[in-house]
Amino acid sequence: VQLQESGPGLVKPSQTLSLTCTVSGGSITIYPYYWGWIRQPPGKALEWVAYVGYSGNTRYNPSLKSRTSISRDTTNNQFSLHLNSVTPEDTAVYYCARGDYGTSDPHIWSYRGQGIQVTVSS
Fold this sequence. Notes:
The protein has 122 residues and is mostly beta strands. 0% of the residues lie in helices and 48% in strands. The protein has no helices and eleven strands. It starts with a strand and ends with a strand.
């Protein structure tokens, strides 16, 4: 299975960040896998953002929940992250990842895409 992130590298403050992960080599609807987003701000630790499970169930990091939405497109085998009202603190490398179960521990999501740098700046 391969995961590839896509989206803008630069977003202005207060706008919405939208990222898509395209999965190849395996369906995102197959048990038991979960599909998530994690991020790493510069100089900071990995942070779990959200995930969507094989059945479509979702879960969000409570600190980001009010601004975050995760969705999936089973036809194109993709899942997406939308983070609104971004600030410079949302600047990070964003990774999409596959997990064998849903977890908020970012280190468990070891099967990741290469990552995409997103900078929030005017």
